Amino acid sequence: MPRFACPDWWEKLQRGETPMADVPLDDARAAKALAFFNRLCLPDVIGNPALSEACGEWFKDVLVAFLASADPETSERTVWEALCEVPKKNSKSTYAAALALTALYLEETPNGQMLLIGPSQNISARCFEQARGMVKLDPQLAKIFHIQDHLKTITRIKTGTKLEVKTFDTSIVTGEIPLLTIVDELHLLGGKAKAPHVIQQLRGGNVTTTGGQMFFITTQSDTAPKGVWRTELNKARKIRDGEGGPRPIMLPVLYEYPPELQKEEAFWRNRENWPFVLPNLGRSISVDRLVADYENNGAETKEAEQIWVSQHLNIEIGLGFNGERWIGADYWAGAGQAGLSLDSIIASSEVCVVGVDGGGLDDLLGLAVLGRHRETKCWQHWGRAWADRDVLRLRQKIAPDLLDLEQVGDLVLVDNIEDEANPEIVEICVRLREVGLLPEEDGIGMDPEGVGSIIDALIEAQFRIEDIRAISQGYKLNAAIKTAPVKLKNGKLQHCCQALMDFSVGNAATEPRGNAVIVTKAQSGSAKIDPLMALFNTVQLMSWNPTAAQAAAVRIPDNYEVC
Length: 563
Fold this sequence. Notes:
The chain is an alpha/beta fold. It has 22 helices and 17 strands. It folds into two domains: 9-254, 3-Layer(aba) Sandwich (Rossmann fold); 329-551, Nucleotidyltransferase, domain 5 (2-Layer Sandwich), CATH 3.30.420.240. It has helices at 9-14, 27-39, 51-54, 57-68, 92-106, 121-136, 139-142, 195-202, 227-240, 259-262, 265-269, 287-298, 302-312, 329-332, 342-348, 391-394, 399-408, 417-434, 452-460, 478-489, 499-506, 530-542; strands spanning 81-85, 113-118, 145-148, 153-156, 162-167, 180-184, 213-218, 250-254, 349-357, 365-373, 379-388, 411-414, 444-446, 468-470, 493-495, 508-513, 516-521. It has an eight-stranded mixed sheet with strand order 3-4-5-2-6-7-1-8, sandwiched between helices. Strands 9, 10, 11, 12, 13, 14 and 15 form a seven-stranded mixed sheet that branches. A hairpin with a 7-residue loop joins β9 and β10 (365-373). α2 packs across α4 (57-68). The longest helix has 18 residues, at 417-434. The model is unreliable at 319-323 and 551-563 (pLDDT under 50).
């Protein structure tokens, strides 16, 4: 089994155990770390109890695995990184501060640097006050550590190594490479465009001789995971599930329900299931207090509930719980086909149609190609999108998502939509026409709003107006919105596993309109669903059972002469 894989993580949660793989330890170092950690006292609790009693066993498991891992053959450290996802009010910031002090005490490297980073000034100040308070409560620790309040720095007197508490900013990458970096509330960095760059720079210590560790501790985000948070969360889940390679360096400790149960609202609304993801129950948190807060605040509206369950139960927003989500989202992931591409769709299809959904400077221009397999008759989808670079400024909230999509090649950022995107759309349509896969009529469907320049470009490329069909939107698209989920569920609509579509599908919500439903943006207009709307346009066209204009595959030049 790959290192750090924990296939029985859900069973462990149900038994009240820490949901992580067994990690071989340096027993002497583990005992030293635990002894120091246990003597630290809570500075903001009546009676200042020691962590030996006040801390749940779950975090002590994480602590020794992170600070005292050792390969049984080489005695080298195996855990270089850890991601601990735990719901709100489980003392994660306090425990992170205590872990930082413990690491500082254990570290023998002289004049090194450690960082305890919060995503905001309030969070970083809170971390410093907790660490400072723990030292102040123990006279013996005052002989070990020197505190500089104005610099938010704690120094190990013996070694000169410093623990600096900082607010996340690009400036923290300057200077030394940290021996240890602890990032509190990683999910809040998902909206920062520079966050991936900063995290990668901080990781530079992992390849030095002395080595450097990274420890992430966070709750789930109250919007769909994005940016660096989505990247690290997906990585941790793959490692946990045994899909992260044979020798990963990140230890995942994720307090969350399995994806299928996150979608079962009846399951997570049942208070008997809450303790599974609340490791500090009975210490910093109680079910009774949670129930009262949920009933008075969390259950007030669907939007309030969505935020509450993401923070207190780690329910992921997006393909999991998303209020009135588009029902097709439940079957989207299962319909993906590894290896499917535009080229393979063209090679295996008997007919293809194209859908386009355009917008302004703060929108995406979405394109979909839907082919009908010549043997199985299965519908096969491929998508692409373009956006003016100004969208990164106009929609800063989703800028990290868009940059991620650009990196994987699903989204193209351009300086001029008409000059750069339109020719690519025409090129794809021409390619389908030249191989004889477009229907005689109605092969290209689009929302008629804001697509005038695209139509002009298609006409200039010798497409007829009969080739282009205006697809009515709103409630008139109801048939396509309902047809797609049925085909996704029964395997008759497959797709290319594109991040662009995962993003778009996860953003989609539905609203009833009379006897119909319409698909809308789920997050106050900032999220984008244009590539999904382009797919719906193709579903509408394909539902009319088109036949390819095979004769178009052979074109006779105008100057052809019979000899």
